[in-house]
Fold this sequence. Notes:
The chain is of the alpha/beta class. The protein has helices at about 15-25, 30-40, 45-55, 60-70, 90-100, 115-125, 165-180, 180-190, 200-215, and strands at about 1-5, 30, 80-85, 110-115, 125-130, 135-140, 160, 195. The chain contains nine helices and eight strands.
Amino acid sequence: xxxxxxxxxxxxxxxxxxxxxxxxxxxxxxxxxxFRANISQGTPLGVEAKSYMDAGNLVPDSxxxxxxxxxxxxxxAAEGFLLDGFPRNxxxxxxxxxxxxxxxxxxxxxxxxxxPEEEVVKRIAGRRICRNDSSHVFHxxxxxxKTEGVCDVCGGELYQRDDDREATVRKRLEVYxxxxxxxxxxxxxxxxxxxxxALGKVEEVxxxxxxxxxxxx
Length: 217
């Protein structure tokens, strides 16, 4: 299967992508991983991307598209893939369509993880990260530490990242509505969109997505 996963920040795309890719036995291709891999390996696209990032500029769509196309051409993606974070805008969606058409392929589904906006703000703004180990993550409401401000695991100080502050989260949502949300209508015109309510336990959301994919198979 060839799937695109979309949804606002805080919808749990990364977590769901990993579970779904494992269940479907296809690679999980995330934009973040593409950038890290290309930059660390010093590929031409990675060098180009780093030059823009070091200058504080946005990486052009052409570079992101090139990285995604290179990854989709790898052997493990021959039978399918799950795209997470790509396409991010209409230009990237059109480029993906063109690539797939030229390759004799097509998308099977676009999974839209639906979460109310205030829930997104609550999820992200409530996150607290351990200064000693960023993998130790707590939440002011959903996963409270035993002692406020203190990591249960190592005793380190818990803090709120600047990216997780409410004003920043709302700005990220504005960008999502402006840049990414239009691709949902674009794919609705192709009858590819499947809306998945993303509230509830992780495994429940995964099951909803798997059930929807099986109904559409």
